[in-house]
Amino acid sequence: MSDLQYTISDLHNLINIGIRDNMLTSNSRDNWLPQSTENCLNYIMQNGNPIESTFYRNMNIDVLKKHLFTASSSNSSKSWNTHLEDEHDLLFDEGKVNDAHGRLSRRWHSNASAIHPYKKYVKFNNYQPYFEPKGRLSDLCTMNSTGPIGVKVKANSKEDLSVCYTDTFNDNDLSCITCIVDIGKGSSVVIDENFENKKDSGKLFNIVYLVKNGSELTINRNYDLLNKDSSMNIVESRVIQFPESKLNFNILGEGSKHNQDIIDVEIHDNCFTSIVGTFNCFDKVTNNTVVNIHHKGRDSFSRVDVKSIVDDFAHSSFLGCITVDKEAEGVDAELFNKNLLLSDKATAITEPQLDINTKEINCKHGCTVSNVNKDELYYLQAKGIDTASAEETLKKCFLTI
Amino acid sequence: MLVTQEFTVSVDDKPILEDINLDFGPGIHIIMGPNGVGKSSFAHALMGNPKYQTDGAVEFFGKDLLAMETHERSRAGLFMSFQTPTPIEGLSNFQFIKQCLDSKQGSPGITETLAKFKGLTDEFNLPNEWDKKHLNVQASGGEKKKNELIQMLMLNSECAILDEPDSGLDVDALQILTNVIQDFASNDKIVIIISHYESLIKNLNVDSVTVLGKDKTIRGDVDLAYQVLDEGFKNIV
Amino acid sequence: MTVDNLNQTKYKEGFSTETDSVSLPPGLDESTIRNISAIKEEPEWLLEFRLKAFKRWQEMAEPDWSELNYDPIDYQALSYYSAPKSRDKDDIPQEIFDTFEKLGVPLHERDALLGIEKDPNVIPSVAIDAVFDSVSVATTFKAELEKYGIVFGSISEAIQSHPDLVKKYLGSVIPYTDNYFATLNSAVFTDGTFCYIPKGVRCPMELNTYFRINARNTGQFERTLIIADEDSYVSYLEGCTAPAYDENTLHAACVELVTLDNAEIKYSTVQNWYPGDENGVGGVLNFVTKRGLCKGESSKISWTQVETGSAVTWKYPSCILRGDNSVGEFYSVAVTKGKQMADTGTKMLHVGKNTKSTIVSKGISFGDSSNTYRGQVRIGKNAHNSRNYTQCDSLMLDNSKALTLPVVSQYNNSSIVEHEASAGKLSEEALFYLQSRGLDEENAVNLVVNGFCKDVFQKLPLEFAAEANQLLNVTLEGAVG
Prior knowledge:
Chain A is an alpha/beta fold and 401 residues long. Chain A has helices spanning 8-20, 37-46, 54-57, 61-74, 78-85, 121-124, 137-144, 374-382, 387-400; strands at 92-94, 107-109, 148-153, 158-165, 174-183, 188-195, 202-211, 216-223, 232-241, 246-253, 258-267, 272-281, 286-295, 301-310, 315-324, 331-341, 347-356, 361-370.
């Protein structure tokens, strides 16, 4: 493991410097933002410890600082005007659009320039409650992003969407992206999300997914980072599952210089939730996953299954918590994290948690950290499969089961 | 030929079998011995199981067996049918066979392999869609043994060591086993079987019988086997 | 039986004893420390140790990361020393002996008193050290044990009789800087148990210390140190009770265990401190630091605990597995009811190679209580081929709170860690099955709960397994919702 050390005071220092240097200022035009910058920062500072586990403690604050300041200094206030002048893709869209292939699809970009549906700010106010400050980096992200993007799918429709978060700007940029995905009642939507960092860059994301009553959302998230060892992604996803909704959230990743997926799911009555994460980490990458499942409603079913293969000098950490409120009777929730450490310098930290407040439930969690099973390896070798191939086979088995 | 010279097998540096000198040529050879004497250990040590430390020499078709890695020994023509086959979740029976064959040179294509595999699973009365089931997972003892047999036939190795291939098999399956072994051996193969099962021994053309005792090893022909089955091990080793 | 009844079961150890005692006035400053040290006629090095700890404590802040809520402790309102008036062991007041008798703890070497010849072949099975408030009042079978070279008795006495041993190991497992309460304990501890098992000796009887807090507004800060020399074995049990007072009583103990090569210490606790009344008033605050160091190769330390009492429990008996091939175990049943809060668990720190640890934690909660398991398993980078298996289960008898917060970190790839946890309620099928065979509801519940705790109870020394079972049944009276 590397020298990643981080304390709350680092974050405080960062914020203080930001305010001092006028890089984080209150945005009077954006009255849809949850609170003014000062209030937001105060909230972060007062709540002391927004960082709940070793996972956050592993974040490399220097990388973040470097990105934040460089980005801010190049995106100084005058660049707001630049954004207004550019031609942009449609970002906030209601309803469907047919494209040339006759298939319902929406493709949208995210980079600092392509966002400014000023005219549509009024509608954003509806979403304000979902951006209440949490005392985390997502607050900084929201304040620092040039405006939200997103999609709203009409009720009772079927949509296949894809989004690709990529770079078009200079190296050393930090992009802050705030995104809203509003799936109308009774709809069925599949979203393919691709995260591509082509250059040495950093991205902060704050994405809110609203899965309304009776709707179904499948998210296929794929991290395809070209310059893994120099890029950084911190993605906070907040999913609110309204009663009787279904969520399938699949994530495929390989870590990066600093990769974090923080997924908070708030689940109401009679929902189905499945979160599957598969991470293949090698070289010197870090991958951190946080999954918080909060059962607020009754009779819901959730399964979280995160697997990491860690090789070379990589590091993987996982924090997963199942919280079941007193009113959430009849909940069936399970959470598993399995880690395969292949090399002597690979490391893993796992913290599965349970916070249960009612007895009418079935809740389990489990985690394992191990190497390839020696007996299984020997069996394959005894039938003629060489060591490297046998290990590959066993890795594949690990990910499938 | 498989020849052992002063072959010693140890676990945690404590010897289990010492100075074993045996040779096996084409044909059917039986190995017997009291429980715990180290018959399975002998087989595993020949196969290169990292749990065992070895001393002495083993020559396999002119090559130094002990100098080879486990998979190299398999590719050199040595096959072992495990007494307790290891289950591997996530790997289907057919995928596994295919991968084993792919690592041997001159293997046929996938269609031919699948056809041959299905033919064998039918012959052995294994359930439908056996090719898709996960390797040795939730399979009965008999089914696992059948799996090992199928592997032996498909890999077609020069020398097969079968560790109690009869345990868990019903009467019909035992018949199939006997026929398969006889057939296999008739192709100039070396077949070494660890077993005490009278039915099996009676119905095979046995070329030699070795009894492994705690301190001594006795070699003989099929009469030795009958003697053991009659009198037990105490008087003989 | 209804859930309403469950919090009204009487705490039968709630009586208090009238006895003449010598106490220091409440308050804590340097002079208090010096007084304690003077009363006990301690050597200079120990006073130094205390003063260093006290100075450090004044700079520390009480930790606040737990899930526990309790009224702030006024450290100046407690008295730090209270002992029955006469300190001579042969002259302990009768009422104190009676107290222990009433609690079911036999202290008299009865046969000797009645003039009955002791059969030299019959080795008594339990030796007891009784601690009343701040002092050890009696130790049975001391002479027997001395024949084996075993030292068992009050730590205050051991400081006088075996200063080298105490000096060598005191503070070696729990440094005086370790945490707020351990530091306080290092400054003000008054007595506790000291035990030394010499090389090659297998202690022939169970060693038992029984703690009784009696005086009001006193803190009990005992310090226990057990050393098992090479190739030795000892099984030790501690039992605890306290009267039912309206104020909180603070119990901040430190227990240090050291095992050398091939030695084994089995440490069991049956804790039934006063839990407070149904409104959460009163009750013992049990903040204990317990740690074992497997110093030698192939040594073993196992912690077994049954916690049913105290208003607030905060303890993490831990093992540092330093010697290669060493083994650490933690078996726990923690029951919380009414307004009790428990934040307990363990830390297994694997340092040496081929080390193994097993954790089985069973939490039972009902009423308004909260039951938290907090655990840490750390496999260090040189702890090759190590294994850990953890199982945490929470049984909720009604809508209380069960939290499971484990942390696993692994820094080498030849080890295996497996952790499983579950939370749920009593199996209705199991209850129905038992009732259909003629058992009434209460007995059915007791059976199922005992089955739930079986893995832990099996680890208790025989003599106490039955007692633990009984304690559990009494605690659960009325807990059927």
